[in-house]
Amino acid sequence: MGGRGYGRGYGSEGASRYASDMSAVPRSEKPVGRFRRMLDRLSSSQEDLESEELREDTETAGCTRIGDCQDRQIVTVTGTLRTVTLRPRAGVPALEAELFDGSAALDVVWLGRRSIVGIEPGRRLIASGRVSMSRGRRVLFNPKYELRPLGRE
User: Fold this and answer.
1) Alpha-carbon span 139 to 129, nearest angstrom
2) Taking the model in full, what pTM does it have?
3) Domains of the chain: which residue ranges?
4) Closest CA to 86 of 66, 59, 109
5) CA end-to-end span of the chain, whole Å?
């Protein structure tokens, strides 16, 4: 019979061909069809789906991913506000919000403000400013910002 690979055995040539198809590349990096995307959406958690949607929104808006922001870099980022709190800093009122874009979180701080109309958890916005690092977290102080429309799908 030699090494022709008759019958059910694949021989060493066939085995290596099939082993290469089972790569260690994560599912999200493989090219996928409509059926695979549907299966992935059905098997993903709600948080994973929302993170993916936010990452796509960041690319569509032409903004920098928060995970790619470096200290002292001037950036424009977009995402959803997860939390909004009033926390005094050095005796001055400061409105703090956590902005999440699917890749990482960033703290947005408005010094001297107790509240801002429209700044509330769940709201999407675009913010621009210089990133600084404070206690190991990315922070934007007094950024320029634009509220995104509610119910935009």
Assistant:
1) 10
2) 0.66
3) 46-147
4) 109
5) 62
The CATH architecture that domain 46-147 belongs to is: Beta Barrel (2.40)
Per-residue pLDDT of the chain (153 residues; tens, 9 = 90+): 554 545 444 444 444 444 444 444 455 555 567 777 666 666 667 777 687 787 888 888 899 999 999 999 999 999 999 999 999 988 899 999 999 998 999 999 999 999 999 999 999 999 999 999 999 999 999 999 999 987 654
| Local structure of 18: helix, strand or coil | helix
| Cα–Cα distance measured from residue 112 to residue 92, given in angstroms and rounded to the nearest whole number | 6
What residues pair up with 109 in beta bridges, in sequence order? 96, 141
| CA dist., res. 106 & res. 125, Å (int) | 12
Which residues, at least 6 apart from 14, have a Cβ–Cβ distance to it below 8 Å? 5
